[in-house]
Amino acid sequence: MSKTRKVQTELVLKQIKRIFIRTREPFIEQYNHKKFGVGWVQRKYMLTDNVIRSHIKGERTVGTFYFGNATIFLIFDIDVEGDIYGQHSRVKAIISQLEDYGIKTEDIHVMFSGCKGYHIQLFFNSPVPIKRVATFGKKIVSNLGELGKGVELRPENTKGRGVKLPLAYHKKTKNFAYYVDRENFEPVSDSINYFLQINPFDCEIIRSACNIALNRSDMQKQRLAKRNIDEDSQLINKPIKTFAEMKLSFDNTNDLEEQAKQLLEKGLRRKGLRHEAQFILALYYKGKSVRSQKTIEEITNWIIRQWKNNKTNESNLEFLKYEVKRNVQYVYKRTDYTGLYKKRGRNLIIDFEDIAFLKTYKRKNIRKVLLAILMIGKIYHIEGIFSADMTTIGRLAGLSRQTVSTLIKELISRDVLKQSADYIYSKGLARTYCMPYLIQKGKQTKGIILEIEDSTLLEAFQEVWELVE
Q1: Phi and psi for 125 in degrees, rounded to 5?
Q2: Rounded Cα gap, residues 291 and 297, in angstroms
Q3: Are 396 and 458 in contact, with CB atoms under 8 Å apart?
Q4: CA distance readout (Å), 390 to 8, 178, 376
Q5: How far is residue 1's CA from residue 394's CA, in Å, rounded to a whole number?
Q6: Residue 173: per-residue pLDDT
Q7: Nearest 5°: CA angle at 213, between 424 and 154?
């Protein structure tokens, strides 16, 4: 082997170990069986540096597993044999989704597998729980609708299948995997150099994307992703308000309608905003009782104008039309996406009965958690049922998420709360509860102490807590 080739092999080995390898035993290896063709086998011994060097040279084709319950990468494996257009559509759709959730384009890497599909690779600089990352990946795939067929995740769960190392030699086609341009799918000029230039991105970005995907409505996800990872210098240092810091004001009923009108009149401000805009427009037309087919036609005409004005990341117009249809059908199908232009929530009213209810619990932390849940419930409940996430409860009560989780379980065991698994908002990390106390009270109030409006939820909590204590 020449000195130059040997140096290059060592550099690739170092990069694979840096951004990919977390565990060495067991590993997987591709084999070529004379009778049954190409397959994979699990090797229950050490994945040594020499084995990896053989992989780089094309002498062996191997893959790795994940370490414990954490991963430093997420890979979308697109495998739709004989459907090049479908493969390209899936790649573009996934990239668009990832960008909507705050992943920067330069951190999304596309590699042709060497056989019949593509791998979309994300690498992060510190381990992230597999359960969260896989759930995020599944949400991306779910958002694709029919295009989600033929897309697999690595990792898909903590005991999932291994994943092939980059730049692999495929024993069936006798081709090496190589990186491609994200737009036109042409091979990059030098795949090895491209791979060596990959830098894992900040793990907080993928954590943020997971939180957005699992905690918020589709529209909120897009807003927060843009707010967190916006390249506009005016927004980079702008603090992001959490739910606890939001104003308790329910009089502005026209925000979404105004946004929709602005979109229809002026179009997209820039690239990267299409997904959220389509969602807003679909809600707008649904709120106006426009038939779904007519809504598809209107938004399709609108997206064609954006495409002609170069305001979309996607170059494939047919894919954009497909996305419009899928988004509109999704919004019209969801019963919880009705009336979003109307006043939501109610003013927070605290009365003597509420204070007495809280004071029946002797432990301070129980009272804090219960007050936080009660306030959220009084604002948003429907027949005693409402959603609340433990992060917000902890923010209000000044307690860790783990403490909140433990205390909520105690309240459930006492029948103060009931977890409602079948309610429409019960998915992801937000929990949906039924509070019998709210049903018993109904609309009656006994001696109003406070009616809080135009304060933040956190400010309101602190004010009420002083009364409780």
Answers
A1: -85, -5
A2: 10
A3: yes
A4: 49, 43, 12
A5: 60
A6: 83
A7: 115
Report the C-alpha gap between 74 and 121 in whole angstroms. Answer: 6
**Contact of 169 with 53, CB cutoff 8 Å:** no
The angle subtended at Cα 201 by Cα 198 and Cα 203, nearest 5°, is 145
Alpha carbon distance 113, 78 (integer Å): 9
- Give the pLDDT score at 2: 54
Token code pair at residue 152: 């697999």
What pLDDT does 400 receive? 86
CB atoms within 10 A of CB 302: 18
CA distances from 383 to 125, 323, 336, 443, 452 (A): 45, 36, 15, 10, 21
Whether 71 contacts 127, CB under 8 Å:
yes
Cis status, amide bond into 26, omega within 30 of 0 = yes
Report DSSP state, residue 336: G
CA dist 298 and 281 (Å) reads 9
Give the SS3 label for residue 112: strand
State residue 422's pLDDT score. 40
Extract the tokens encoding 307.
């495409």
Cα–Cα distance measured from residue 215 to residue 405, given in angstroms and rounded to the nearest whole number = 16
Q: How far, in Å, CA of 73 to CA of 54, rounded? A: 23
Query: How is residue 19 written in tokens?
Result: 């951004």
Q: What is the residue whose two structure tokens read 């948003």? A: 380
Which two structure tokens, joined as six digits, stand for 35?
Answer: 């009778």
The DSSP 8-state label assigned to residue 314 in this structure reads -
As a whole number of angstroms, the distance between CA 40 and CA 240 comes to: 47
**Residue 320, H or E segment:** helix 317-333
Q: How far is CA 314 from CA 262, 282, 343, 406, 410, in A?
A: 22, 20, 35, 46, 50
Which regions of 423-467 does DSSP assign to beta strands (E)?
Answer: 431-434, 448-452
Mean pLDDT by groups of 10 residues along the chain of 469 residues: 73 94 89 73 91 93 87 89 75 90 93 88 93 92 83 85 89 89 91 95 90 61 48 40 60 64 87 77 85 92 90 77 83 61 64 89 92 87 79 87 88 86 39 85 64 74 85
**Beta bridge mates, 451:** 349
Question: For the chain, how are helix, strand and coil distributed in percent, rounded to 5?
Answer: 50, 15, 35
Residues 224/103, Cβ–Cβ less than 8 Å:
no
Quote the pLDDT of residue 22: 85
Site of tokens 């969801």: 334
Written in H, E and C, the secondary structure of 223-292 is HHHHHHCCCCHHHHCCCCCCHHHCECCCCCCCHHHHHHHHHHHHCCCCCCCHHHHHHHHHHHHHHCCCCH
CA angle 221, 223, 227 (to 5 degrees): 115
